[in-house]
Amino acid sequence: MAAPLMEKDVELGFVEETDKKLLTSRYFPSKIGGHPAWLSLDSLPTTDSLACRICKKPTSFLLQVYSPGAEQVEAFHRTIFVFVCTDPACNKSNTNDNFHVFRSQLPKVNKFYSAEPPDETLPGKDEINAASFNKICIVCGCLGPKTCSKCQSVSYCGKDHQTIDWKLGHKKSCTSKVKQEQEERLYPSLFPEMELVTETENYKPCDKTADKSEEEKMKEYKEYLCSQNSAEGLKDLSETELQKMASEESENDKQLRKFKKRLSHEPDQVLRYSKGGEPLWIACTPKPDNIPDCDCGSKRQFEFQVLPHMLSYLDVDKVGESLDWGVLCIYTCSKNCSIENTYHREYIYKQDVI
Predict the structure, then answer these.
(1) Chain centroid to CA 76: how far?
(2) I need a surface site. Which of 9, 201, 255, 339 has the fewest CB within 10 A?
(3) Is residue 181, in this structure, part of any structural domain at all?
């Protein structure tokens, strides 16, 4: 008999407040929100490549995960970037058309950063960023090929963000005679900026379901229903009624219950990292039938997933429709193919609960 497959270790991601200067490019951060802390600094994704595939408007930077490839010289530094369109109308169930994922990697010796680790006791001392090599949009922090025609000192990725900046203050400060320093404003298109920190999941699967009596299973299921519905009436359900409800419970309901039970051990987790492992699905279906191969021809493998709890940190709750997801699963090239200083598109699978 073949030995059972061992579950890979999972690194759990949590959100923490920190000095914003430590969330810049030189410190190779993992973070959510704010401007991207680009890794490669002189060949950023184009405006077109970052546009939502549905509404064609700019997507917003969601998060980045620093995951160096120690086994490859050219991936000594390696970061995965995720972008999302915040328009609720583009947030369609089980589709990824409002997301973009890019991989960037560099060798230890490169033209941007010293080979020596940065001094975190003096944040900002030797900072270098993409603005040293490109015009950067003041609103989103992405490539900014457009410039204000009056002052010639502020750059934008396009008309949408120029309009936003004009309304939020640039109209008053703009001048064709004196170049104004770019003001730091709170733009509605940005998510709150926070650090992502990780720790190894301390979880040992112990499935004793097969050893439980029907009475124990019913009791456990009843407790689950009460926890989900917060209804006193459920506590008084008869065994017959419970059995009827249990028999009607779909496979997706069962998977959602397993998902919540696993996450309940660390309820504040917002991300699960397990390169080469398997996602923790929130539902049985749909699942990807075939993950597209990388452009280099290699297979892609699962790297990490973003959990729904991250939404609570993004200030996206609105009356009616809002940005939402079940899980976001990111797949990257299994060979970590050579991409030099460019940003290479990877794949994201969005699974929702129907």
Answers:
(1) 21
(2) 9
(3) no
